[in-house]
Write a structure and sequence with these properties.
158 residues; alpha+beta; 2 helices; 31% strand; globular
């Protein structure tokens, strides 16, 4: 695996449901926030420590949209004051106009992931009203964090 991006996302008291654990909707919010940090502020190798994000070369008017997302929950996530979630992200696939981000969320250092996810992002040209084809510069930045697909559970056969 090439580079991985790691960040901490602080859990909020409002993320907790009546059962005392972090609600699945809020877990998705944590992943979304981490993915935003990754795409907009991750250091790009070869730029001397600058943190312009992996989408730095995407033209104005092109935005990223979630095309698909799969999340496997492995462990309960309880709210612990002042203990952020630890999120690890990398790019698991780059296509013509979309790419996939693999994610692992841990509740503590050294623990197995509490959830594993794979999110497909589509680059969308709003003015043209269609997907934007990933150019060489963006592809190079994305592939600097290339790695294996997320370790999602196999789906049961019918």
């Amino acid at each position: 695996m090439a580079e991985v991006f790691e960040c901490e996302i602080q859990a909020r008291l409002r993320d907790v449901n009546l059962g005392g654990h972090v609600d699945n909707v809020e877990a998705i919010r944590v992943l979304d926030e981490a993915r935003l940090l990754f795409l907009r502020f991750a250091p790009v190798p070869g730029l001397g420590g600058e943190q312009p994000g992996l989408l730095r070369a995407v033209p104005a008017g092109v935005s990223e949209l979630v095309g698909a997302q799969r999340v496997d929950y492995h462990a309960e996530m309880r709210f612990v004051p002042f203990q952020p979630f630890l999120v690890r992200l990398w790019v698991s696939h780059v296509g013509r106009s979309s790419f996939s981000v693999a994610s692992e969320l841990r509740v503590e250092v050294g623990h197995d992931p509490a959830l594993v996810a794979e999110t497909t992002m589509v680059l969308w040209d709003g003015a043209a009203g269609r997907a934007w084809a990933i150019d060489g510069d963006v592809r190079q930045d994305l592939t600097s964090y290339a790695g294996a697909p997320a370790a999602l559970r196999a789906r049961p056969s019918s």
